[in-house]
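It would be a great kindness if you could assist me with a short task in structural biology. A protein sequence and the structure tokens that stand for its backbone fold form the material at issue. I should value your view on which stretches of the chain appear to form regular backbone elements. The record follows directly beneath this note.
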Amino acid sequence: MKKWKAFLPPVTLVMFFIFIWEAGARAVNVSFILPGPSGIIIRLWELKEILFFEHLPATSLIILLGLSISVLLGVSLAVWMHASQAVERAFYPIIISSQMIPIIALAPIFVLWFGYSIWSKVVVTVLITFFPITVSTFDGFRSSSKELKELLLTMGAGKKDIFLKLNVPSALPYFMSGLKVAVTLSVIGAAIGEWLGAQAGLGYFSRRMMTQFDGAGVFAPIVLLSVIGICLFLLVNLLEKYVLKWRKI
């Protein structure tokens, strides 16, 4: 019962904004610019076949590939930087500097390099999601207790034991936090890539509807993108509770 009460304030606030949005849309009565939530839901139902069976799978594949590559590269680089100060000094400033460049400015370049294939969108997604995973995991490695490390050394532990029994458990909560950020950003990355150049996907479909002045059609795939982001976040949250059973979350 207490858990349901915790959801009551945000649900009430969301319902209030939806009510204001619907009332404003009906008052303005310009559906191709400001469609109401009811109009968006109706349009979403009308387009369900093409959205769910053609464009949703394309976007989901981009998100899955981008996140998988980001996790693999991000964790590997974090481990490498933790193991070598020379690698940290070489790569860490580059990782930070990479976030100063607007990804939306690079996306057209990737389209030129990879064409309208899936990989131009995957690269955009990787660039957006790589940073939080790498930095969070690396910070987790650095947060490991020096006192516990000294204790393990006095007990005869080797580098492998220290890494697996101290560094990895210390980094896991940070990695999961970075992954929570990354999964939501992956949806944005996929949408940006599709918006700038694609042949399928929710971002592509939203742009196509914009050229037809179909306001509800523009918002319908955006609603699906939001649902994907929320579901991915909840999935990672469940994974965190399962993996970090030893920690009270």
Remarks:
- The radius of gyration is 22 Å.
- The chain has a mean pLDDT of 85.
- The first helix runs from residue 2 to 28.
